[in-house]
Write a structure and sequence with these properties.
The protein has 432 residues and is of the alpha+beta class. 33% of the residues lie in helices and 23% in strands. It contains eleven helices and 18 strands. A six-stranded mixed sheet has the order 1-2-6-3-7-16. A four-stranded antiparallel sheet has the order 4-5-18-17, with no helix packed on it. A four-stranded antiparallel sheet has the order 11-13-9-14, covered by helices on one side. A hairpin with a 7-residue loop joins strand 17 (386-388) and strand 18. It binds zinc ion. Zinc ion is lined by residues 95, 122-123, 156, 183-184.
């Protein structure tokens, strides 16, 4: 930013404005309604890559608030509130998907102020807060200076591979100047602020060979031996400590019996880095380890070492070669921002204004990855309330003071985008 904006001051201006105070009071009174919608949404199964039902219902709830709700090709749902001026376009989104398969029992159980249900916090809470935010904006008639895009997206969790945000940003990323992911809920008085993006690349690598008898077909190329060579070469790689760059072969599979040469075997590899460049470098190295292993296994059985006839008189194909299939099963871009970047400073200022201490999390994998990898300022915002046991069947959400979540989110996006007749945007327009 050319002129460094005092974010604490910018946040204070919004927070003390008549429109924000009115909206904040509305959201407090709206808490029960928000929790009811959270309870309705959490009971609609929404496993990553199967979010259609929940997305459809979310779209209807958005329409019921009087908004035009778009659903794109992959089921991201959002509305656009046009700004009155030439301010930045600010996008805030929660995620519709969960880590729970479609047949998971989703029956909320209540214990005092706690609600137990898989997915109740991560990120059904975020989705419900988005609806409260929209109600408040409409109730007060807030007119932002920059455009607001408000919605919920698909594919944030593991198997979703960020497909919702990838789709949106590939198509419309150039229109967005700042992105907030309204995700998860904090578990104490300290709030974690996720501002970096750990990238990852994952493969399923399958080795194929003709297969045969371990004794009778000795001399035949062996897929498990090829994979063993590959794992050895991969395990010998060295990666930078900073930015942290890691790899692991997490699962191996294959073979049928001790006296058989396998037809096929496979392994799953996970690679991660806090920056995109070392991740791509590591990716190249891993792929070359695999190619080298296959070549060596094929070359190992030279003509003179091959025994073309086996003990049963069968002839195996002396020219048989190991073939490898490399299937990419994960691809999340990485990137970093500094604590001094505008959206990060803004999120700190928002939390400080609520008297909450921030714990910075530089490296994580969230919906913000895509924006951060495109150098669009982005940061995580947690929902209100409290939670524990996310991603497990015992996940719970404590509703106490949960209205603070949508209040914080509204404060963040209005400070960024500005309020017509009240204050200028605290964020510059970076996109053209
Ligand atoms: Zn989440």
């Amino acid at each position: 930013m050319s002129n460094r904006v005092d974010m604490d001051l910018a946040v204070k201006r919004v927070r003390e404005s008549k429109v924000y105070l009115e909206a904040a009071a509305f959201m407090k009174a709206d808490e029960r309604h928000t929790i009811d919608q959270q309870l309705e949404l959490v009971q609609i199964p929404s496993y990553s890559n199967h979010e259609e039902l929940r997305a459809k219902r979310f779209q209807e709830l958005m329409q019921a608030e009087g908004y035009e709700a778009y659903m794109d090709e992959v089921c991201n749902v959002y509305t656009v509130i046009p700004g009155s001026g030439d301010g930045p376009t600010v996008y805030i989104s929660a995620h519709l998907d969960t880590v729970f398969p479609m047949d998971t029992k989703l029956e909320p159980r209540f214990e005092g102020t706690k609600i137990f249900c898989p997915g109740i916090a991560d990120d059904t809470r975020g989705c419900a807060e988005i609806l409260s935010l929209l109600r408040a904006i409409r109730h007060v008639g807030i007119k932002p200076v920059g455009n607001l895009i408000i919605g919920a997206n698909v594919g944030e969790e593991g198997l979703g591979d960020l497909r919702g945000m990838r789709h949106f940003f590939q198509k419309d990323g150039k229109k967005v100047d700042a992105f907030f992911t309204l995700d998860g809920v904090d578990s104490g008085n300290r709030v974690s602020v996720t501002y970096g993006a750990t990238g990852s690349i994952r493969y399923k690598v399958t080795f194929h060979g003709p297969g045969g008898h371990s004794y009778g077909d000795y001399g035949c190329v062996n897929p498990i031996h090829a994979m063993g060579r590959a794992i050895y070469y991969i395990s010998e790689l060295r990666t930078p400590e900073l930015p942290k760059t890691t790899f692991s072969v997490g699962v191996v599979d294959g073979g049928t019996s001790v006296n058989s040469i396998a037809h096929t075997c496979s392994m799953l590899i996970d690679m991660r880095s806090d920056e995109q460049e070392p991740l791509e470098q590591l990716n190249k190295q891993v792929l070359s380890c695999i190619n080298r292993a296959v070549e060596e296994e094929n070359e190992h059985w030279t003509e003179e070492r091959k025994w073309s006839k086996n003990m049963f008189g069968r002839t195996y194909d002396v020219n048989a070669r190991i073939r490898v299939d490399i299937e990419q099963v994960g691809n999340r871009p990485g990137g970093s921002q500094s604590l001094d970047d505008p959206t990060v400073r803004l999120v700190y200022a928002v939390h400080h204004s609520f008297g909450v201490e921030c714990v910075p999390i530089a490296h994580s994998s969230t919906d913000a990855n895509i924006a951060i990898s495109m150098k669009i300022p982005a940061c995580g915002l947690p929902g209100g309330g409290k939670t524990a046991n996310n991603h497990s069947l015992d996940e719970w959400f404590d509703t106490t003071d949960s209205y603070i979540g949508p209040q914080r989110a509204l404060l963040a996006i209005l400070t960024c985008a500005g309020i017509t007749g009240v204050c200028e945007p605290a964020l510059e327009k970076i996109c053209r």
